[in-house]
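On clarity, I found the account of how folds are encoded harder to follow than it need be. An entry of this sort, consisting of the sequence and the corresponding backbone structure tokens, reads as follows:
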Amino acid sequence: MTTARTAIVIGSGIAGPVTALALHRAGIIATVYEAYPATASGVGGTLALAPNGVAALRTVGADEAVTAIATPIERSAMAVGRRHIDLPTLAGVPPLRVVHRAELHRVLHDRAVAEGVPFEYGKRLVDAEQTDSGVTARFEDGSTATADILVGADGIRSRVRGLIDPAAPGPRFTGLLSFEAVARHEVDVEPGTMTFAFGRRGYYLYWPEPGGGTRWGANLPQQRPMSFVEARAVPAAQWLDTLRTSYGDDDPGRELMATSHADELQVAGSLQIMPPVPHWYRGRMVLVGDSAHAPSNSSGQGASLAIESAVQLARCLRDLPDVETAFAAYVRLRRARVEKVAARAARINHAKAPGPVARTLMPLLIPLMVRTVMDPEKTVADEQRYVIDWDAPVTTEPALR
């Protein structure tokens, strides 16, 4: 094990609590520092947890609590116009789980607190100073904290990433705006079915909501990026009018938008992704989750990869003799995997806003694609069947595959 015995974890989203839990299991005491004054409460829409993400949660004892609040997605379909095509499923893996982001935050926070992990709120990181023996975080309120290592789990706009490498790239706009709500309209599909629909003017997806109604998410093409704050400044009723116009020619898009309420509309702003980050660590500071790798939501893997990285970082610190060696092994274990997922998701993004010619051809091409390039054994098997062996020792040499 490294000489690291204490850790500062910046960010209490998804990666932060899981990192603290995994470090705790590895024998390292971690405290989580969050810039906002309290835990998330009703903020954000739903996200997907892939089977590999749930498997990683099992390592820190959070899988059962998370699956209890999640909706299983047993099957999926694609719709272009009036044509619906069932998509093949990957055999031998548990279902995808969709869960409300705020509920996931709460469960992970409560699990970490139960394990003795402290959380400090209202602690916005402004700087960090490293020495040979430790790192000191400086917060906007004038307070400081010192530990052996500092972990940046502070998301796509990471402050820690900039401290590690001032020249690090920032997030990139995908060209899509994101919205979500629950419609009163009931779609005629089996519960547990997620449908990916290509409307005349935009992409959307939907599934039956347990308890009634249909939950939907929409990605509208947009020329100019818009931050979360900017998007929220536009009245929700105005956004809903835009969505009703955009999906007015689609079935069931028209009914979904018509039976949704403006006061329940989740407006997420422009979808963003992280390009490859050259440096994941420097000295005693290291990145996990979206601060290092944030693929498009098209991947269905963003949260799951963040959870995996938290667990793998803890394994490396548990087994290797010094911080530098542990961080290098962590990057070796993670970089190729997350960048492969990001590349797959980027290809999907290009298909979310097809032009008129492509849209005309899609009903003809999709059945062929389902049998060939959309075969889950070829596209997502390595992603979803991935299980971290917590008990296996990490070495300085790449593992044989």
In short: The chain has two domains: 6-73+93-171+274-353+375-385, 173-272. Residues 173-272 form a domain with the D-Amino Acid Oxidase; Chain A, domain 2 fold (CATH 3.30.9.30).
